[in-house]
Design brief:
Strand order of the largest sheet: 2-1-3-4-5
Helix content: 40-55%
Order of helices and strands: EHEHEHEHEHEEEEHHHEE
Shape: elongated
Largest sheet: 5 strands, parallel
Strand content: 15-25%
Distance between the termini: 27 Å
Length: 227
């Protein structure tokens, strides 16, 4: 899942970006309202985390512009403005939640997951299934054939990407940008190493192998029709 952070305080923005990335999300950061609005209009984000006091366009204006254009992606205000009227204004403009600084990252993460669950429309879409492989987006759990599989945050993000686009061959460049938030460097083997570890956890000891390497192209998670 992709999250856009619009935050002008560099340390806070980087803290959020790193924390959300480690939790398995793809997180982009904009440091002013104009850039934030541009990215929100161009990218397909599942959630926007938005400060109110921003250079250029403020958070109120960014949200109003998004809603005026018919974009309904969830928005979480994260701001030092703690007056009741500010919270009411944010919610009336169409925000989904309002969290006041200073904040606990654990609480922020819980609110993010709650908003995403609500936005995805209930329990059914919070679980991805391919053959006997199941991924629970809310509890961050993976199982195959009923057996629990423990994954790191990056492995979870990698598997989520493969499952959301199962049957599609994903090039290394796309995997690098979506999971590691980096440009693909042909000199690094980070993707191959991560994929090898994930394949061991998902496919080792299984009669049906779900994760395949397509030589010269990338990787695909695919279930045979008979499964």
């Amino acid at each position: 899942m992709k999250i856009l952070i619009v935050e002008d305080e560099p340390k806070t923005g980087e803290y959020l970006r790193q924390g959300l990335s480690e939790a398995g999300f793809v997180a982009d950061l904009a440091q002013n309202g104009s850039d934030g609005l541009h990215l929100a209009l161009q990218g397909e984000y599942d959630l926007v985390i938005l400060d109110v006091m921003l250079p250029g366009l403020d958070g109120w204006q960014v949200l109003q512009s998004l809603r005026n254009r018919g974009l309904q992606m969830p928005v979480l205000f994260l701001t030092a403005r703690d007056q009741v009227e500010d919270r009411v204004k944010g919610l009336e403009l169409g925000a989904d939640d309002y969290l006041v600084k200073p904040f606990s990252f654990a609480e922020l993460l819980a609110r993010v997951r709650t908003i995403l669950r609500r936005g995805r429309g209930g329990t059914e879409t919070n679980t991805l299934r391919v053959a006997d492989l199941e991924l629970d987006l809310l509890r961050r759990r993976v199982s195959r054939g009923g057996r629990r599989i423990d994954l790191t945050a990056k492995e979870f993000g990698l598997l989520e990407l493969l499952m959301r686009r199962h049957g599609e061959v994903l090039p290394r460049s796309l995997i690098a940008s979506q999971v590691w938030d980096m440009n693909f460097d042909s000199d690094t083997n980070v993707i191959e190493v991560a994929m090898r570890r994930l394949r061991l956890k998902i496919d080792e000891g299984q009669d049906v192998k779900l994760i395949q390497t397509v030589r010269g192209m990338g990787y695909v998670l695919e279930a045979p029709e008979s499964v």
